[in-house]
Amino acid sequence: MELLWFYVAVALAISDLIHTQLMWKVMADFYIILAGLIHNTVKSNVTVWIIHELFEAIFHFIVISVLFLSPTIGFLAAFIHFVIDVSHTLLLDNVDMNEAEHRALHFVIESIFFMAIYGV
């Protein structure tokens, strides 16, 4: 239980890599068409982006919940990942980060979040 915070942060990082590979390499055409359909419905790029982030959070919820057999951990992982994605896009949009820096930002903040919950 002492290292649960670390295992969850690592699993969430791996889940994010899997999500990226699935959505942008395997299912890219479907994902682009789905985004177009959603945009035709909501008529707002910001809303489409938020829906994309919510879909990603649902993906992480499912993966982490199954992996740790805990919907609570899955919810917390999806929630913190969603908050970080939205926050860094809004607050750090003009900061140019490569993929490794982006992943490191997520990992550090997610680790601190789970350390605060499970590391005490």
From TrEMBL:
<keyword id="KW-1133">Transmembrane helix</keyword>
<protein>
    <submittedName>
        <fullName>Uncharacterized protein</fullName>
    </submittedName>
</protein>
<feature type="transmembrane region" description="Helical">
    <location>
        <begin position="58"/>
        <end position="84"/>
    </location>
</feature>
<feature type="transmembrane region" description="Helical">
    <location>
        <begin position="30"/>
        <end position="51"/>
    </location>
</feature>
<keyword id="KW-0472">Membrane</keyword>
<keyword id="KW-0812">Transmembrane</keyword>
